[in-house]
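Let us walk through a complete example step by step. Step one is to write down the protein sequence. Step two is to encode the small molecule, zinc ion, as a SMILES string so that its atoms and bonds are unambiguous. Step three, shown after the inputs, is the structure prediction itself.
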Amino acid sequence: MNFKIKKFIKINPFIIPILCLSILSDYFKEFLTVLLLVTIHEIIHILVAYKFGCKLEKLYITPLGQKAILKNFNKIMPIKKFIVVLSGPLFNLILFLICDSIFYDSFEFFKKANLVIFLFNMFPIYPLDGGRLLQILLEDIVGFIIINKFILNLTKIISLILILFGLIQNILYPFNISLILISMYIRFISISEYTNNTIIFYKDLVTQEKKYCKYNILKIKNIIVGKDYIIKDIIEKTSWGTYLNVSFFYYNKLITFSESEIINYFLNENAYSKLEDIYLKKY
Ligand SMILES: [Zn+2]
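Step three: the predicted structure of the complex.
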């Protein structure tokens, strides 16, 4: 296997000063344990994704967490996406349960680290697994862009609460700034996660790849909206797993447009036009 590590793995240089700091403060063993656990957690995601036909584009290793960019991830079935995202935290939970039952009163830090990684990752915010699970669960129901915006706002609120907790923790235990740092990092990185998701969505829309991806079955969703509904708002309701048929009443007559018609109008005409504008232009 011709696996070029440099091409696939990017290590953040900040890992070196943090590593030195952990040696100086006598926390080297703990730092290494957490680094190893989160790296294996990420490798589990990659291996499961590989099984479903996704390929690794890049693995970012930073002192505050790992992130794998997977090719074709949006084009696999929602259930498979869900399994890929859940596999990482599930690995930590299983490891915790096994260790806890075998080594009842030893390996305390190892057990605690697995439990914390599991619980922390289940927060429904970006860029954590919980945020991605929430996105997969709701994108076909409310629309991809709408859920993407919602999770970004939720991340802003939760990270702010975590920063406040961090400040209180710092008053009680001075110089313990890890929670503040992690919360600030989450707030910062969530914006790039949101932006990347939005770019991928619109890019696939432009290349018409969104609906003609690898799904064998696409759910049809029929909705009825007002005739002055804006095209852009309908586009935000679409997702990879559903095909929308949008209907509206135009003077007691029910008019229906398919998602393809809406996408074509969105890309080639005015995104802020109303549904009745397409109808009047067409007839
Ligand atoms: Zn994960």
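Step four is interpretation. The radius of gyration is 23 Å.
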